């Protein structure tokens, strides 16, 4: 992911937040919090991981498949933009 170096700080910050969320789940389990509380923490962590995954897949499409913003072929640009939108929707 050498091409992502410009976004490296942003991606690493997201990973650190996910790490903090995982540590919160660990603390909640250790403190024997209620099931609903632990499940809410896990759901938040899952959402954060899905967001990170979506961002990384989109970045991969733009850098290694087709960047719809720079593609001269309108059909390929449209296809890439649709794929990115499907990934975003699916990962919500």
Describe the structure.
It is a single chain. The chain has 92 residues and is mostly helical. It has one domain (2-90): Methane Monooxygenase Hydroxylase, Chain G, domain 1 (Up-down Bundle), CATH 1.20.58.1000. 77% of the residues lie in helices and 0% in strands. It has 3 helices and no strands. Helix 1 (8-30) runs antiparallel to helix 2. The protein is elongated, with a radius of gyration of 17 Å. The model has no long low-confidence stretch (mean pLDDT 92).
Q: Name the structural class.
A: mainly alpha
What fraction strand?
Answer: under 5%
CATH class: Mainly Alpha
How much is the radius of gyration in Å?
17 Å
What secondary-structure arrangement, pairings included, does this model have?
Blueprint lengths: L7 H23 L4 H31 L8 H17 L2
């Amino acid at each position: 992911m050498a091409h992502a170096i410009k976004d490296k700080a942003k991606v690493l910050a997201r990973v650190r937040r996910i790490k903090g969320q995982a540590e919160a789940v660990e603390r909640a389990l250790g403190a024997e919090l209620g099931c609903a509380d632990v499940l809410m923490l896990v759901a938040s962590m899952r959402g954060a991981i899905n967001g990170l995954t979506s961002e990384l897949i989109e970045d991969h499409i733009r850098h290694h498949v087709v960047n719809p913003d720079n593609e001269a072929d309108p059909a390929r640009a449209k296809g890439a933009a649709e794929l990115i939108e499907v990934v975003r929707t699916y990962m919500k």
